[in-house]
Design brief:
Elements lengths: L1 H8 L8 E9 L3 H4 L5 E3 L2 H4 L4 E8 L7 H18 L6 E5 L4 E5 L5 E8 L35 E7 L5 E8 L5 H15 L43 E4 L4 H18 L6 H4 L2 E9 L17 E9 H6 L2 H13 L3 H14 L1
Helix pairs in contact: 4-5, 6-9
Length: 347
């Protein structure tokens, strides 16, 4: 598999020759801007996810929807979307008195960029393969703005010579987790079709607020920073939960491949070293009461599994899959609340 990727990667374009044509801010409607603006509380889970997440979505040519028409449709839909997702027009701020981050819902605007590439989509090759050059299709920093006034959300529409286009989206992770980002895209699709949002968002992050006083009732090894693998006998692998059904199987496959790739030939001691995998678990349905499915914040906690590399090599695959599933099942309402409170006491 590695050789196949290396062979393909050598054929990938290293420069997509993208030129920015226009870059500006879009704002919520006047009605939304006139509402009283208050800082948005961010939970302890949100607090540790202050980094950008970037996705690129490719669309083949459609004579009825050329890139310039799509760009205008997206701009108008985003204005409507920010009436419900006002945090996307806000700015991340540090409260000096509490030391916590919050979102200043000040209507400062989201980023919107229009760009062109000198290539056709076909010239990019197989879009299934990751290509570092795809970073040219996403904008996370608007050069016209100072560093401390960058938007939490930015669109980039890049048109190709064939009439196709790429939609690059950059979001600060404090705005969405994977599930709420999918819900946002579903709502945006509804607005693009001149329909109301399919799932109105729940923006109340206090639903994951720490208890008063905080109570840590479980050991949280998954939240303790792992030491460097050069000084310990463990390594960590991160994965993202997409669907629980196939997720455990894929998780174990990735874990096993990663752990065994670090075993040197004929080095028996390497097989005795312990490997740790960390993976995200959606807690919306695990709390009591459950979080709304439309909760926009980060409602994920980290589960973990540990095993010697030898066990990953020799144990039945199904046994390891069961172990990974069991670790995820440990995350109950009390366990989740305890983890959130751990963040309150150690943050």
């Amino acid at each position: 598999m590695g050789a196949s990727y290396q062979e393909c990667s050598s054929l990938l374009l290293q420069d997509l020759k993208v030129a920015i044509k226009e870059s500006y801010l879009i704002f919520p409607s006047e009605e939304t801007l006139t509402h009283e603006r208050k800082p948005m509380f961010l939970s302890n889970v949100d607090q540790v996810l202050n980094f950008d997440v970037q996705t690129v979505h490719f669309f083949r040519p459609n004579k009825d929807y050329p890139p310039e028409i799509v760009s205008e449709m997206l701009r108008k839909a985003m204005v409507r979307a920010m009436d419900a997702y006002d945090l996307l027009a806000g700015r991340l701020r540090l409260n000096p008195s509490s030391g916590r981050l919050n979102v200043d819902c000040n209507g400062a605007g989201a980023g919107f960029v229009m760009a062109e590439s000198e290539y056709t989509l076909e010239e990019l090759g197989d879009l299934v393969y990751p290509n570092p050059a795809f970073v040219e299709l996403v904008t996370s920093q608007l050069q016209s703005l100072p560093k401390d006034d960058q938007p939490l959300f930015a669109f980039q529409v890049t048109s190709f010579k064939c009439g196709g286009f790429a939609m690059g989206i950059s979001t600060n992770h404090t705005t969405f987790d994977g599930l709420s980002f999918k819900t946002f895209l579903d709502n945006l699709a509804s607005l693009l079709s001149d329909k109301p949002s399919s799932t109105p968002p729940c923006n109340d992050r206090t639903l994951l607020k720490a208890r008063t006083p905080p109570r840590v009732t479980f050991p949280h090894h998954e939240l303790v920073q792992l030491q460097d693998s050069n000084t310990t006998a463990s390594e960590s692998v991160s994965s993202v939960c997409v669907r629980v059904t196939g997720f455990n199987v894929v998780t174990v496959l990735v874990w096993r491949c990663k752990a065994l790739s670090l075993v040197e030939e004929e080095e028996v001691d390497d097989l005795e070293k312990e490997s740790t995998i960390l993976y995200a678990v959606d807690i919306r349905g695990r709390l009591d009461p459950q979080l709304p499915s439309s909760y926009t914040g980060n409602a994920v906690l980290t589960a973990y599994g540990k095993a010697k590399r030898k066990a990953l090599l020799e144990e039945l695959f199904g046994t390891i899959v069961e172990m990974v599933g069991e670790r995820a099942n440990r995350i109950t309402d009390e366990y989740a609340r305890s983890a959130i409170d751990w963040g309150e006491m150690t943050g």
